[in-house]
Design a protein that fits this description.
Layout: H1 6-15, H2 20-27, H3 37-46, H4 65-75, H5 91-101
Helix pairs in contact: 2-3, 4-5
Length: 102
């Protein structure tokens, strides 16, 4: 048994192609109060109405701790081997130290 009435399916077809914003907007209406926006997305995909994915944010490429320790060593003109215990510190602390040295 479906949670979707023919009227709900007609509204989905009118809103096609769906995206996240449209699905959340439909879910907030009184007609779709009994279903979640995720259910609406699933139903749209099941009915082949089309769903536009939002692009995922690009991952930040961060320097490794070893690279940060090497940069700190270079900033204070010390051999990186002399700072070998510094690599055990938190990455945020190492980044703050490097920013304050520069």
């Amino acid at each position: 048994m479906s949670n979707y009435t023919p009227a709900m399916i007609a509204k989905l077809q009118d809103a096609a192609p769906l995206n996240l914003a449209k699905a959340k907007a439909l879910a907030s209406t009184s007609d779709f109060a009994s279903v979640s926006y995720r259910s609406i997305i699933s139903k749209a995909k099941h009915l082949d109405l089309g769903y536009d994915l939002t692009p995922k944010a690009a991952k930040k490429i961060s320097a490794s701790k070893a690279d940060t320790v090497n940069a700190i060593a270079k900033a204070i003109n010390v051999d990186a081997d002399a700072l070998d215990g510094l690599a055990l510190a938190k990455a945020s602390a190492l980044n703050n130290l490097l920013m304050n040295l520069s």
